[in-house]
Write a structure and sequence with these properties.
The complex is a heterodimer. By secondary structure, chain A is α+β, with helices and mostly antiparallel strands. Chain A has 13 helices and 4 strands. Chain B has a 6-stranded mixed sheet. A 5-stranded mixed sheet of chain B has the order 5-4-3-12-7, covered by helices on one side. Chains A and B meet through helix 1, helix 4 and helix 6 of A and helix 5, helix 6 and helix 7 of B.
Chain lengths: 317, 440
C-alpha cells in the first residue's frame, strides 16, 4: 500500500514538469506553494499541510500539491491519509485516474506473465483491456492539461452483458432480493415473462420503493452488468466530482468491468425523505472486489420518473 | 521529493546464533518484519551492494548476486532500478524461475501488498486455481529465495574456519564443503602464498528430498561424511536430468561400508535444461548445482583428489580452536610415523584402535603381520607429504570424532620400497587419536 503511494507520486512527477505549470497570472498560488515548501523544510508540517490543503481547494488540478501533501502525511506516518490524498489527486482529473488504472492493468498482466514463468504454467497471451476515453469539448478547452483521446468513440454500448456468466450472476442476485421480501408484483411478472436478460432491468413499477431500486442497483453493480447499472441513473444525473456525464459513464464502465469480481452489499438503509417525487436515502455500502475493499457511507437523491425511481445525485458522506 | 522510503519486503524468521554487529546490520537489511518498519540506512545498503558487486567481479556468472542486488534496490526504494536489474538477469538466465517470481512481486508492489516473496495477495487472484503441484512449486521457490538471502546474511565477514577442513595437501587445489541445512556448497582454495587456504566462493545447491544422513539405498538422503570425487561423467553419457555432467563421489566409503550403509550413485551434478535451479530438497541423494555453477567449477574439481565434505551443518570454529585441532591431528600422524620408523613394533601398534580394520585385516591379524615383518627389518625410513586433514561432522549420537587423513607415503627399508597415497581414518579415543582404518 505504501508503495502504491510512492509510485503514484512518481507517476505524477512525470506529468508535472511539462503539463502542469502554475497558471501564469496566479502569483498568489505560487507564493503559497513556496511558503508551504519553506514551512515543510523548517519542519512545520502541520502548517505546511494546511496551506497545501488550501491550494488544492482553490486549484484542484495541481498534482504537485497532492504529491507534497501526501509526502507530509507520510512524514507523520499517516500512510492512510497519504494514500487517500494521492488517490484524490489521481481522480481530480479523469485522465490521470484512467491512465493509472491502465498502467495497473498492464503491470498486472506483466506480473501474471512473470508468475506463469516462475511456476512454469502455460498462460494464454494476456487479455489486457484498457478503457478508451472520448474527447469532450470541456477537455479540449483546458489546453494546459493532458488529454486522453479515444480510438473508438462510442463503442462502449456494444459491450452490454457480453458474458453469459454475468447474466447468471444477475439472476442469482435477483433471487436474493426476492428473499428480502421487497419483491414488486410487476417486477416479478417481468422476470417471468422474459427470464434471464430482463431480470435486472430497472423495474417499471410505480410501486417500486427507493430501497428496492437501490438493492437492484447494487445487484447490477455486483453482477458487473454495466448498462443495467447505468440505467438506474437519471438522465440529468450529475457526477459528484464535476466530471461530464459522458466521461463519468465511461469511467464507471471501466471500473465495473475491470475487476474479476465485485460484491456490493448495502445495509442500514435509511429513507430520510420521500415525497413520492423525490427521495433521499442514506446507507452503508460495502464494496469488495478481487483487488479492493471498502465500506463507505453514502447518500443518494432519487427522482421519480415515468420509468420509476432514478438516481439523481450520489455522494459519499 | 520528500519521501520516507520505508519498504518492507522479506519477512523471514531467521535466527542468528552469533549475532555480530555486522550480522545484525545485514539482518536488518534483508530480514524485515513487515510490521516493524525498520528502515535501513543507505550506508548499510550500499555496503552490501558493493559486496555483491565484488562477488560479481570475481565471478561474473554469480546470478544469485544479481538477484540479491535487485532485492536491495527494491528495498531502498529504487523500484525501477530493481526491475531493470531483474530484466537483465532474466535476459541472461531465461530459466531462472525465482527471478520471474520476484519480477511479478515487484510489478505488483506498485499497488499491492508485497511483504514476502511470492506471497502477493494478487498472485492468487491473477493466477487462479493453482494446482497443488504448482502451489508446492511456489513454496519451493520461496524456500530457495530464503536460503539464498540467508546465505548472504550468514556468509559475510565470517571470522571463523570450518572444523571439517583442517589441512589441504599441496596437490589439493580445491576442497568442497557442503552444508545441507543451509543448502550451500563452499569452495576452499589452497593459497599459493603459503597460507593454508581460503574460502573462494559458495553456491546454492539442491540436496536429497529427505533430511538426515543416508543409511540405505533409496532413502532419498544425502550422505554425511568425508568423500572424494572419483570421476567425471560427460553429459553425452547421461540422461538430460543431470544437466552438464556429473562428478560421482566415493559413497559408500570405507567407513560407510563398515557401518553397513548401502546405496550408490551419489553424484555432484548439473540441472535439467529448462530450469536454472532446483528446489532446495529435491534430489534422490545427489548434490545438484546449477549448470552455470558446475561449468565454472568443472576445471577445478579433480577426480581422485578433490575432497567433498558433506555435513548437515558445517561447524565454524574460531581460529585458535581450529589451529589447535589441526596441530593435534598432524602431531598424531607424525607420532605414528616416528614410532613406525623407530622399529619399536609395540609402540607403532599402539597407534591403532581396537576396532581397526583394513582391506584384509583386523587389529589382531594386522599386529601379527607387522610383528612378523619387523623381524626382517634392519632399518625403516618413512616420509609423509601432501597431507590433507578432513574431519567428519560430529553428530550427537557419535561417541567419537572421526577424521580422514590423505597423505603421500614414501617408505624405504632394507628389503622393501614403496611410494603411495594412503587414506587413514582416525578416531579420537580418550583424548588421543587412534587409527581406525588404513588403506590406499
Amino acid at each position: 500500500m505504501l508503495r502504491s503511494v510512492i509510485w503514484g507520486a512518481a507517476f505524477f512527477s512525470v506529468f508535472s514538469a511539462t503539463t502542469f505549470a502554475l497558471p501564469a497570472n496566479n502569483d498568489d498560488l505560487a507564493r503559497k506553494f513556496s511558503q508551504a515548501q519553506q514551512l515543510s523544510s523548517e519542519g512545520k508540517i502541520d502548517e505546511a499541510i494546511s496551506i497545501y490543503q488550501a491550494i488544492i481547494k482553490s486549484q484542484p488540478l495541481l498534482p504537485e500539491a497532492y504529491n507534497n501533501l501526501a509526502a507530509l502525511y507520510l512524514e507523520q506516518n499517516n500512510t492512510q491519509q497519504a494514500k487517500l490524498i494521492l488517490e484524490q489527486g489521481l481522480h481530480a482529473h479523469k485522465g490521470y485516474g484512467v491512465l493509472y488504472e491502465s498502467l495497473t492493468a498492464i503491470n498486472v498482466a506483466m506480473a501474471r506473465q512473470a508468475y506463469s514463468k516462475a511456476l512454469q504454467i502455460e498462460v494464454k497471451p494476456s487479455d489486457i483491456t484498457i478503457a478508451t476515453l472520448s474527447l469532450d469539448k470541456e477537455t479540449l478547452n483546458r489546453k494546459s492539461q493532458p488529454i486522453v483521446i479515444s480510438k473508438e468513440q462510442g463503442s462502449a454500448n456494444d459491450t452490454l452483458l457480453k458474458k453469459p456468466a454475468t447474466v447468471k450472476a444477475v439472476e442469482k442476485d435477483q433471487t436474493s432480493i426476492d428473499e428480502k421480501d421487497v419483491v414488486d408484483a410487476i417486477a416479478s411478472e417481468a422476470i417471468n415473462r422474459e427470464p434471464a436478460r430482463n431480470a435486472l432491468k430497472v423495474p417499471e413499477s410505480s410501486a417500486e420503493s427507493p430501497e428496492t431500486i437501490l438493492q437492484a442497483w447494487s445487484a447490477a453493480w455486483s453482477a458487473q452488468a454495466v448498462d443495467v447499472y447505468l440505467s438506474f441513473y437519471h438522465k440529468h444525473y450529475k457526477p459528484a466530482n464535476g466530471m461530464s456525464r459522458r466521461s463519468w459513464e465511461q469511467s464507471r464502465r471501466y471500473r465495473l468491468k475491470k475487476p474479476s469480481w465485485i460484491k456490493i452489499s448495502l445495509s442500514d438503509l435509511n429513507v430520510m425523505k420521500n415525497t413520492g417525487k423525490q427521495a433521499v436515502v442514506s446507507f452503508k455500502q460495502a464494496y469488495s472486489s478481487n483487488s479492493f475493499r471498502d465500506v463507505s457511507d453514502k447518500q443518494v437523491v432519487l427522482i421519480y420518473t415515468d420509468d420509476g425511481w432514478r438516481i439523481y445525485r450520489e455522494k459519499s458522506l | 521529493m520528500m519521501f520516507k522510503r520505508i519498504l518492507t519486503y522479506i519477512s523471514l524468521s531467521l535466527s542468528f546464533s552469533a549475532a555480530t554487529a555486522e550480522e545484525i546490520q545485514l539482518a536488518k537489511l534483508t530480514n524485515f518484519d513487515s510490521a516493524s518498519h525498520i528502515s535501513s540506512s543507505p550506508n548499510e545498503i550500499s555496503s552490501v551492494l558493493s559486496k555483491l558487486e565484488n562477488r560479481l567481479r570475481l565471478y561474473p556468472k554469480d546470478h544469485e548476486a544479481e538477484l540479491l542486488k535487485s532485492i536491495l534496490y527494491f528495498k531502498s526504494g529504487k523500484l525501477e532500478k530493481a526491475l531493470r536489474e531483474l530484466d537483465n538477469l532474466i535476459k541472461k538466465v531465461p530459466d531462472f524461475q525465482l527471478a520471474y517470481l520476484l519480477k511479478g512481486d515487484l510489478l505488483l508492489s506498485k499497488f499491492g501488498n508485497t511483504n514476502t516473496i511470492g506471497q502477493s495477495t494478487i498472485l492468487s487472484s491473477i493466477i487462479p486455481s493453482l494446482e497443488k503441484s504448482k502451489k508446492q512449486q511456489l513454496d519451493f521457490l520461496r524456500e530457495e529465495a530464503q536460503l539464498r538471502i540467508k546465505a548472504l546474511i550468514n556468509n559475510k565477514k565470517r571470522n571463523t574456519l570450518p572444523r571439517q577442513i583442517l589441512a589441504l595437501g599441496e596437490s589439493v587445489d580445491k576442497a568442497l564443503l557442503i552444508d545441507k541445512n543451509a543448502n550451500r556448497m563452499y569452495v576452499f582454495s589452497r593459497k599459493a602464498s603459503g597460507e593454508l587456504f581460503e574460502e573462494v566462493n559458495d553456491y546454492y545447491i539442491t540436496t536429497g528430498k529427505l533430511v538426515g544422513d543416508k543409511n540405505v539405498k533409496g532413502d532419498l538422503r544425502t550422505p554425511e561424511g568425508v568423500y572424494f570425487v572419483t570421476s567425471w561423467i560427460s553429459p553425452d553419457k547421461l540422461p538430460d536430468k543431470y544437466g552438464v555432467g556429473a562428478f560421482p563421489v566415493n559413497y559408500p566409503n570405507e567407513l560407510d561400508r563398515r557401518k553397513g550403509k548401502t546405496g550408490y550413485g551419489i553424484w555432484l551434478h548439473g540441472t535439467d535444461k529448462g530450469s536454472y535451479s532446483r528446489p532446495p530438497r529435491d534430489s534422490e541423494g545427489c548434490v545438484v548445482l546449477t549448470n552455470i555453477d558446475l561449468e565454472s567449477l568443472k576445471s577445478e574439481i579433480k577426480p581422485g583428489i578433490t575432497p567433498v565434505v558433506i555435513t548437515n551443518k558445517v561447524e565454524w570454529i574460531d581460529n585458535a580452536s581450529w589451529k589447535k585441532e589441526r596441530e593435534e591431528i598432524i602431531q598424531a600422524v607424525e607420532n605414528w610415523r616416528v614410532d613406525w620408523e623407530s622399529m619399536n613394533v609395540n609402540k607403532y601398534l599402539s597407534h591403532y584402535g581396537e576396532e581397526f580394520w583394513s582391506a584384509s585385516h583386523n587389529l589382531k591379524s594386522w599386529s601379527a603381520r607387522k610383528r612378523y615383518l619387523a623381524k626382517s627389518k634392519t632399518y625403516q625410513k618413512v616420509k609423509l607429504s601432501d597431507l590433507s586433514v578432513l574431519v567428519y561432522p560430529k553428530k550427537e549420537q557419535d561417541k567419537q570424532q572421526i577424521a580422514v587423513v590423505r597423505l603421500q607415503q614414501d617408505y624405504r627399508s632394507n628389503n622393501f620400497k614403496s611410494e603411495m597415497y594412503k587414506r587413514l581414518y582416525l578416531a579420537k579415543q580418550d583424548k588421543s587419536w587412534k587409527i581406525l582404518y588404513e588403506g590406499r
